[in-house]
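hey can u check if this looks right to u? its 82 residues, i copy pasted from the old doc so theres a chance i mangled smth
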Amino acid sequence: MDHDDRRQPTIRFVGMSPKRPGDRRAFNYSVVVPVYNSEGLVGTTVEQLIEVFEREGLSYEVVLVNDGSRDRSWDVIADLAH
């Protein structure tokens, strides 16, 4: 994969919970995670974020932004998206 391939669009992970008016869980949370040479951390980070939001029944999205990593960070992000 050449450097230009690493500038592909951001991958989003979106989870939704039922919403009720006035419920604090009705708020949508967005977490933007910059990723730079973090192939060993990004998977665990995403798993932990999802676990917390799901446990709390919150509506969320996790946005991973690969900032030109030279390791396998992009490959890990792509694997998480599948």
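The chain has a mean pLDDT of 81.
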